[in-house]
Every structure is written in structure tokens, then in C-alpha cells.
Amino acid sequence: MSARPDYDLLIAGGGMVGSGLAALVAAAEATRGLRIALVEPKPALAPLPGEPLDVRVSALSRAALRLLVAAGAWSLVDARLPCAYERMIVWDSTAPAAGPDTLVFDAAEVGEPDLGHVVENRAVAAALLERALAAGVTLIKSPVTGLELDADLARVALGERTVTTGLVVAADGADSPLRRLAGLGGEASAYPQEAFVAHLGSELPHGSAARQRFLPEGPLALLPLADGRVSVVWSTRPERAAALAALDDLAFSAAVTAASDGVLGRLTLSSSRPRFPLRHFNASSYRGIRLALIGDAAHSVHPLAGQGVNQGFLDALALAAVIGAAVQDGEDPGDPRVLGRYARPRQAENALMGAALDGIFRIFTDERPLVRRGRRLGLGLVNRSRGLKRLLIAQAQGS
Ligand SMILES: Cc1cc2nc3c(=O)[nH]c(=O)nc-3n(C[C@H](O)[C@H](O)[C@H](O)COP(=O)(O)OP(=O)(O)OC[C@H]3O[C@@H](n4cnc5c(N)ncnc54)[C@H](O)[C@@H]3O)c2cc1C
After folding, report:
1. Quick one: pLDDT band at residue 18, thresholds 50, 70, 90?
2. Is the beta carbon of 308 within 6 A of some atom in ligand 1?
3. Cα–Cα distance between 267 and 355 in angstroms, integer?
4. How does pLDDT run across 209-259, given as a tens digit for each residue?
5. What is the CATH number of the domain that holds 302?
6. How many domains does the chain have?
């Protein structure tokens, strides 16, 4: 590199994944001296003590938890009472929840205390941001508005101001302006579905289990919360979503109770219920000149297996390791050969996960009688195969 850039690493996007990478690189021994900037127009605010749980929560795998622990952020997230889930119960709407064709993953089967935790997104992002700032990362409260990438350094426009960096990481979400500015494409397809998220009180205890019922119109997930409620993620056709949005709270609660087949008794809405469009995307490359993509900027998946941010955290862990090794070996972390060590394996792994989730989506929304029967029996068969179950748990755990 000819001129010394303002920063060694600039991360655009301070959501869970971008803040995670910043905290991780800043905390690691190998990269402790790097000058790191995190550019985010709306930094996450830590919830105040006693503040009600936000409606956006995620199921984090044990592998994703590693990032929070390595970054020193887990104790801060822990204060917001994440809910450990010990079981996952999956069934098709053609079968009863307690029947032989229900798939049950139990943490005990793989010798773990739990399968993961349901955490509040804003608490995770704020905790990681706090750790990043404490470790010396500079927060720039602005959006990235322009990008010029060349072999020596990257110029990043922040409104009127321009800063230079040896490596830009785009962690700016599914609509990633940086990915577009860098001219990186990929295959995108919108699912014919929207997802509602909401918290509901339940008549019966959730028993620390995450549940998913596959309905013909899309899956309904019930994630356990530490306060005894469940967080619902209900993916359904846009016209059905519009009809559900028009219902009052009582009627909406009744609709979710019916969709869950009453598995937890009567459910009662106790939060807002925002909706999200769903799509499948994987960037054709996770690197450009002095640029890497991570998190939703690189890939989006259907939330049916709760994998989006988990994949993003695995990206951050992989990229932090590649940057660390390069710094230790005296290499330039922005060198395309170095970035290839991160980009190729993660792109391939995320493509596999995306394709698997896409396949599950298609099978479970296929209404042909033979397919419906096959998937119901398939769940039961997987449930009776210990080896396959172990494999699937390991895959979902990112290990
Ligand atoms: C309904 C639903 C349920 C889900 N449930 C789960 C789950 O249970 N488990 C799971 O693992 N995943 C889940 N996901 C996926 C998960 O929410 C996403 O994968 C995750 O939020 C992506 O994080 P991110 O940091 O990559 O992107 P984002 O959270 O989108 O963050 C991007 C950040 O970039 C900033 N930004 C945007 N433009 C710019 C710019 N020009 N310059 C600088 N910064 C910019 C934004 O302000 C934002 O803070 C779910 C998703 C949905 C829709």
C-alpha cells in the first residue's frame, strides 16, 4: 500500500453481525493494534433495566454464542434474560403435535445442556457495540454514501467527508448499499410469503422448547421466552398476511392459537406484530477489491430454521480468524488472496444452507397429497434415526 490509510479496517453496518466483527477483531490478541472504524447511522441502544422485551428476538445457536463469549459480550446479553431452549419440536399440520410423526431434537441427545438461546436482537447488537467501543473501535455515526475501491486502498464517502481504509467490510444488511456500490451481484428470489413476529402469552408452559408447525401456507414457529411467553414467527402468503394484519388483537390471538393447533393452549397477543418480506439470496462472491461481505449483506435465508444471524456470526468468526492470521504472518488483510481464504469457504457453506432451507420450504408448502404424506412420514423417520438427528443438530449448531 502506498499512503497509510486512516483505518486498517472499516466495517459498514453496526447491526448484530457488523458490531460482532468489530468487537471480535478489537478483542483478539493478534489484531489488537488495528485501527478499526464502525460506520452505523443508527447505533443500537442497550435496553434500560426493566424495559419490556423488544419484539425482535433471534434463536442463537451454541456456535453463535461463541462469538458473544469471545467478544466479552455474553454477560451483558445475559442480563436481559435470554431463554435457553432444550428441545426443538417440529411437526406437519396433517399430524398431531404429540404423534409418532413429530420430530423432536433434544439437547441431551448430543450431550449439551441446551440447543441455543432466544435473545433480544437490540441487546445483542448493543452489547457487541459496547465491547467494540471499550476495545478502542471508533464509531462513526453516519451512513456510507459512496465507495471507491482500488488496489492500494478503499475510499469511503460518509456524506461530505471521505475516509480511507485498507479493508472495507460490508455488514449493512440485506439491501446492502455497499454491495451495490461495489458492483457485487448474486441470485435473489422473493418467497411468496411475509413473516409476522409477535410475543404472546400462553395458557400452557412452553417447557423451554422451540416449536415449529408446518402449515400449507408456511411455517409457524413458537420460540420460548424467559418471562414465560412465546415469540411467534408466522410466515404466510401475502394476502393472508394482509388479512391477519387487519384483525384486532383478540382475533389475531385466536388465529395464532388455531394455527398452532392449540399446542400451548390459548395464546394472547402482548406486543406489536410487525411483518417482514422474505427472500433467498446468496452473493456470487463475498469479496471485492479490498472489500468483504458478511451477514445479511452476503446472504438471506428463510427464517424457518432461525439461521440468518447464526450464519452471519459464523462469517464474522471466520473473517476475524483470517484477518488475525494475516496480521500475524505480516500479510495485508485487504489483499484479495487473503480475503479469498474467508470468502470461498463461507460462500460455499452458506450456499448449501440456503439451498437446504429452500428445499425444506418447497417440500413443506407443496400441497400434492403424496408429498404431504411423504413429508409427514419423513419427519417421523428422521425422528427414529439417532445418527441422522445428531447430524442435523450439529449442522444447525454450525459445528
Ligand atoms: C422474521 C424474522 C425472524 C428471524 N429469526 C431469526 C432467528 O431466530 N435466528 C437467526 O439466526 N436469524 C433470524 N433472522 C435473521 C436475522 O434477523 C438477520 O440475519 C440478522 O438481523 C442480520 O444481521 P446483520 O447485522 O447482517 O444485518 P442488519 O441487522 O440488517 O444490520 C445492518 C445494519 O447496517 C446499517 N446500514 C444500512 N445501510 C448502511 C449504510 N449505507 N452505511 C452504514 N450502515 C448501514 C443499518 O442501519 C443496520 O444497523 C430472522 C429474520 C426475520 C426477518
Report:
1. very high
2. yes
3. 33
4. 999 999 989 999 999 999 999 999 999 999 999 999 999 999 999 999 999
5. 3.50.50.60
6. 2
Tell me how far apart the alpha carbons of residues 70 and 384 are, in angstroms, rounded to a whole number.
36
Ligand 1 proximity of 88 Cβ (cutoff 6 Å):
no
| pLDDT given for residue 379 in this prediction | 76
Could you tell me if 350 and 261 lie in one domain? Answer: no
- Does residue 67 sit in the same domain as residue 98? no
**pTM of the entire structure?**
0.94
Task: Evaluate if residue 1 carries a pLDDT over 60.
Answer: no
Grid cell of 93 as nine digits? 399440520
CATH of the domain at 238: 3.30.9.10
- In short, whether 16's Cβ falls inside 6 Å of ligand 1 is yes
Alpha helices in 260-334 (DSSP H): 308-328
Range of the domain at 42: 9-71+120-188+279-359
Does 154 lie in the same domain as 62? Answer: yes
Burial of 343 (0-12, 13-18, 19+ CB in 10 A): buried
Ligand 1, atom nearest to 276 Cα: 53
How far is residue 77's CA from residue 126's CA, in Å, rounded to a whole number? 9
Q: Are 127 and 76 in contact (CB under 8 A)?
A: yes
Q: Of 232, 244, 168, 242, give the one whose Cα is nearest residue 206.
A: 232
Using most ligand atoms within 8 A of CB, pick from 145, 309, 319 the residue to mutate for ligand 1: 309
120 lines ligand 1 (CB under 6 A): no
